[in-house]
Amino acid sequence: MGVPTFLETGHMADGFPIRLIYTGAEFNYAAHWHDEVELVVVNGNHARIGVNEQMFELNQGDMILIKPGDVHYFMPGTGRLTILLFRLELLTGSFTSEAEMQELGTLFNQTSIIPCSSQFNPSPYIDAIATEIKNQKPGYRWLMVSRLYDLIVLLLRTAPPAPHKDTPSCWPCVSSKKFEFLESVCEYLEEHYAEPIKLEQVAEHMKFSKFHICKLFKEIKGITLMEYLNHFRIIKSEWALLFRQESILEIAISHGFNNVNSYNRLFKKYNNCTPSEFRKRHRSNITKYQG
Length: 291
What we know:
5-stranded antiparallel sheet, Jelly Rolls, Arc Repressor Mutant, subunit A, 4-stranded antiparallel sheet, disordered C terminus, globular, 2 domains, single chain
């Protein structure tokens, strides 16, 4: 499988809203996002996980809870992980009160680090989910959902209060139609990122006005359409720097930049280093691309 695009779909088996993944001893995976929550537990000695513009250095036992829609990636040098994916649709229903929705919204509207020293220990619940997947006895999916509920209650009771942020909430409730719109825009951007894309082209493709597209995109993603496109170009280029032999200029041009100066400037904005420095710093950790 090649380097994945930002938007990841079709990765939940049979459409079931829970998936459990155990990675190998050495793991790396390119930038992507999806509308599931992702809980990552570090089982190896170390993990280097990027989320949006931040890089997190995690140690054994640490966890990261990644909110739906956040772009994330696993850098070379990351050890063994357990990854639990689940859809927030499991938590909605007529029995859920407004106060409970607010609690869940506070928990899942931000990406957060859960240090190893905290009281939160997801292992019994994750192990129980893994056992049900393995044995597949009658009613195993119901029991998987039940153990996930236990895990979420533990999160609610042990997670520190979330700081207030002036960012748009992804849950509860970005409508499915808005997510479909977002997916369509992102798929177009990711297909044409190497070209000099203009807002007019996106608007024509989507059959919407530029104003409407920009407003909706910012509302859902919290960044502008062009910021998303440029971030996508930069992260695609990061993997080219690590796994291909082209020059910096060749990589810049093939990733939608007119010249190497604009590429270097934007790359440094996101990574606090130049492309050359990035390549030297991270290539020593490379084993084999897994994706």
